[in-house]
């Protein structure tokens, strides 16, 4: 499911002539915001439910360079979820559907009043059920990776 479409902004390009590594994280952060909008946690939904989502952990993999003004599309699928957490996998593609980067993220639902983790409000949980879910045995190849020097 495409969750975000954007372009590489001029200010995202670094001294190497391509999108700076930190800007990939920005694009994935924008994708989380788009996901929140999609599941009913836009500004109005956050106010109404007194609820938001925090990022607990992220694992970014860079595959290809992106360049100024290049169209970008981010897809999302859920790897797992429980009452208050989402294990989400985002993929960043160019206009030719080349994979540019991935971001695996653990997201936590938060009660804004208490500042503590809390279960997703019922309408949000229902919207989450409609998102694409990867089967346990069919995760994307780059999901679940660990970082280390292979010997």
Automatic annotation (TrEMBL):
CDD domains given in the database record: 4HBT
Q: Could you tell me the superkingdom of the organism this chain comes from?
A: Bacteria
Q: What Pfam families is this protein classified in?
A: 4HBT_2
Matching entries from SUPFAM superfamilies are given as: Thioesterase/thiol ester dehydrase-isomerase
Q: Which PANTHER family match?
A: 4-HYDROXYBENZOYL-COA THIOESTERASE FAMILY MEMBER, BLR1345 PROTEIN
Q: Can you say what this protein is called?
A: Thioesterase family protein
| Organism listed in the record | Halomonas salifodinae
């Amino acid at each position: 499911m495409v969750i975000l479409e954007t372009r590489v902004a001029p200010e995202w390009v670094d001294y190497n002539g391509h999108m700076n590594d930190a800007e990939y994280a920005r694009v994935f952060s924008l994708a989380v915001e788009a996901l929140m909008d999609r599941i009913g946690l836009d500004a109005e939904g956050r106010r109404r439910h007194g609820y938001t989502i925090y990022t607990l952990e992220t694992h970014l993999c860079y595959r290809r360079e992106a360049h100024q003004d290049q169209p970008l599309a981010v897809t999302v699928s859920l790897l797992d979820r429980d009452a208050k957490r989402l294990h989400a996998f985002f993929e960043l593609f160019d206009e030719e559907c080349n994979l540019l980067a991935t971001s695996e993220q653990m997201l936590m639902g938060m009660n804004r009043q208490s500042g503590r983790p809390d279960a997703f409000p019922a309408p949000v949980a229902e919207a989450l059920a409609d998102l694409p879910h990867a089967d346990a045995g069919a995760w994307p190849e780059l999901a679940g990776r660990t970082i280390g020097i292979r010997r």
